[in-house]
Design goal:
The protein is an alpha/beta fold. The chain has helices at 17-20, 33-40, 57-71, 82-85, 96-111, 127-133, 139-156, 171-178, 189-212, 239-262, 269-275, 284-292, 348-360, 391-409, 453-464, and strands at 2-4, 10-14, 75-79, 86-88, 93-94, 115-119, 162-167, 222-227, 232-234, 297-301, 306-309, 328-329, 337-338, 343-344, 366-370, 414-420, 439-442, 448-451, 466-468. The protein has one domain (2-476): TIM Barrel, CATH 3.20.20. It binds 6-O-phosphono-beta-D-galactopyranose.
Length: 477
């Protein structure tokens, strides 16, 4: 069957500064929290690879922009590395070399016909602000972020029309502060919730400046936030399973989508935190800022659905509160899996979340800012010419796109699809284990770039304005 893309539909790809640039050009002390995570424990990163060189985008961005043009990419999202861009994190003074680099990247994208989409924080919080102030636990850091955001708007506002304040702001609080999986390996739900809240506040303050000052909003620029939200499916329709799914939805979707899109937190949220002795520092003045400064568009990173069920055992009262108090993860039998990443593949989830945005979030304009498939050992899929035959990725993208197009047909205001990633890239901790790109990065050959079969599929799809898909089931092994 043929699926048609409208002319203005933004077909592109996404990346992040820290996952591509490498550390070249960074001055001593200019490291981000995720850089620090690697420095502290390189042993926990797959085969020791980390952000040090990454894809060497810092030196090779012109080559990458040329490839984008060749492939017909309409948009490319990346981030500014806050820890690189700002010289004095407290005053917001800019590092001129870094400014020249980001200016150069944006110019190069535009020169190659690619719309630049810029995110201000893809976990590149300066490590100095973490060490001195406790990172996003601190309201002072909110103010430092606002200064940084304004410096970025000032530099690039006349060229960049799509801005995002944060990428997946929940991930660091969740994995590093609440669940002790990432550095700094904390297990403190209250602090994690303060990080989340402070990021929502920082988002609103950055939106306010972008809207009120003349950095491009008046001439049609847009600002939003990227959230890794997904539908929360209960195991069954029983009251307890549905409640578990609702609570999951609250703690992992709504504490961002509600305040950022509608201006208010769900009514039950603060009372719940109080009930569990986890209440955070919130003022009426801040809540008023959040209410008055909502986003223009949303970015959705969708990889997999959330499946939950009611807990079968009571919470251990000696363990401090964690949202898991209310749910357990549910393993759906027979689910389609990406075995390399261990994530379920469920393309219809994208349609379902599009309908949630349409029906419960004022039908806000949005785009898919990430969706993709990380696969290990791709070199074994090379053909005689050395081109990776990643039919599984074509299947993944086509299947998600067709569900997305169905949502658009039904009135969802989705205006684009950015695949993760343009090239293979460094993942947190998994480093180069699972490959995500339309373009291969050859680690054994000077990080050379080679377009995969999916990249040619992308090019043809953009040129033709449609793709054909019959829902074949590729072998993932
Ligand atoms: C998202 C992040 C990306 C990217 C992606 C794939 O959560 O925004 O930075 O890494 O997931 O996940 P991973 O790299 O962990 O496989």
């Amino acid at each position: 069957m043929k699926y048609f893309l409208s002319k203005n539909f933004m077909m592109g790809a996404s990346a992040a500064a820290w996952q591509t640039e490498g550390w070249e050009g960074k001055k001593p002390g200019q490291e981000s929290l995720i850089d620090a995570a690697y420095k502290v424990n390189p042993d926990r990163w797959y085969e020791g690879y980390g952000p040090t060189i990454a894809t060497d985008f810092y030196h090779r961005y012109k080559e990458d922009c040329k490839l984008m043009k060749e492939m017909g990419l309409k948009a490319y999202r990346t981030s500014i590395d806050w820890s690189r861009f700002i010289k004095n994190y407290e005053t917001g003074e800019v590092n001129e070399d870094a400014a020249a680099f980001y200016d150069g990247v944006v110019d190069e994208l535009i020169k190659n016909g690619v719309e630049p989409i810029i995110c201000l924080e893809h976990w590149e919080l300066p490590n100095q602000l973490f060490e001195k102030y406790g990172g996003w636990n601190s309201k002072e850091v909110v103010e430092f972020y606002v200064k940084y955001a304004e410096a970025a708007f000032k530099l690039l506002g006349s060229k960049v029309k799509y801005w995002f304040t944060f990428n997946e702001p929940i991930v660091f609080p969740e994995l590093a502060i609440m669940d002790g999986i990432w550095y700094p390996y904390k297990s403190d739900t209250q602090e994690a919730m303060q990080w989340n809240y402070n990021k929502v506040l920082a988002n609103a303050k950055a939106v306010k400046i972008y809207h009120e000052k003349d950095y491009g909003y008046q001439s049609g620029g847009k600002i939003g936030i990227i959230i890794n939200a997904a539908p929360s499916y209960p195991r069954s329709q029983s009251t307890d399973d549905v409640k578990a799914a609702d609570m999951y939805d609250l703690f992992f979707n709504k504490i961002y989508t509600d305040p950022c899109i509608k201006g208010t937190f769900p009514e039950i949220y603060f009372p719940l935190l109080k009930k569990h002795d986890c209440m955070i520092a919130v003022t009426d003045e801040e809540l008023a800022i959040i209410q008055a400064n909502t986003i223009d568009m949303m970015g959705l990173n969708y990889y997999r659905p959330n499946r939950v069920k009611a807990r079968s055992a009571a919470w251990n009262p000696e363990v401090k509160f964690n949202p898991q108090y209310y749910y357990e993860n549910y393993e759906l039998q027979g689910k389609k899996m990406n075995p390399f990443r261990g994530w379920e593949i469920y393309a219809k989830g994208l349609y379902d979340f599009a309908m949630i945005l349409k029906n419960e979030y004022n039908n806000i304009p949005w785009l898919v800012t990430e969706n993709g498939m990380g696969v290990a050992g791709e070199e074994k899929h090379k053909d005689a010419d050395g081109v990776i035959q990643d039919d599984y990725r074509i299947d993944f993208v086509a299947d998600h796109l067709r569900w997305l197009l169905k949502a658009v047909e039904e009135g969802s205001q989705c205006f684009g699809y950015l695949m993760w990633n343009f090239t293979d890239n460094v993942s947190p901790y998994n480093a180069f284990k699972n490959r995500y790109g339309y373009i291969e990065i050859d680690l054994d050959d000077n990080r050379n770039r080679r377009i995969k079969k999916s990249g040619y599929w992308f090019k043809k799809t953009v040129e033709d304005g449609y793709f054909e898909y019959d829902g074949f089931e590729p072998v993932y092994k």
